[in-house]
Amino acid sequence: MKAPDFAYCRPASIDAVCALLAEHRDDARILAGGQSLMATLNLRLSAPALLVDINRIDALRGIHLAGDGNYLRIGALARHAEVARSPLVALHAPLITAAMRHVAHPAIRNRGTTCGSLALADPSAEMPACAIALDATLVLQSQSGTRGVPARDFFFGLYETARRDDELLIEVRVPCQPADQRVGFDELSRRHGDFAMVGVAVTARGTPDRMTDLRLVVFGTDTMPIDCRDAAALADRQAWSPALGEAIASAAAASLDPDTNMFGGPAVKRRQAAALIRRVLTATFTSREAWHG
Q: What are the residue boundaries of the FAD-binding PCMH-type domain, all occurrences included (predicted)?
């Protein structure tokens, strides 16, 4: 199928984009990488009146340290491939580097953007879960000004976010990870690069003898990433053991509310989630490679 008719604009500044969004609101769509948008246009699942191409705006590019070196700034035009090979990301946000191995296929990673994945909020996507696990902040700009939204408050449901119609996601800010940070990531999919049936992102501090600040985010099962805080709290100041991993996995899986889809029903998804959580937690606390430092 061919895309429906739409107007096209390629502004040269963020202010110009915000002016267009303020005027057209929900009738406008942002074009960055276009890896999801172009498919929905061609299938006529999306019919915007205006396509706003932001690829001329240099201020939206790049990956660098900011905030006196306290956080990593990933611009709205940073492609997945750029993020995946960034030494800054590998050093300061290794969870993202680990997750990037699972993001789609090379051709898509070469065009798709990390902020675009966050803005779309596909429940099977890797980046929203990583953003929550890393306590990232999403920065939105409009004609009214700029505001930061913690990732844990950004995702509301199926393709629903805190972004208003007149706002542009200009960057994501990821706190630089401390030296005793451990990270873990894995997902189940029919083929490598396909959408995740279930995925798990983990961060924690401490040692296997005394864990603190465990963050456990499950994605692909519900309409948005699930921050399993109650299950993660079971690990606070505890020593790692297979029994503890089993308890955390069981509690996290029980907290999920999966729908039935082509990948199975709620019972299947909970079993898959529990198995994957056990696998990721075991790797996180028994593998030397899981250490950030």
A: 1-179
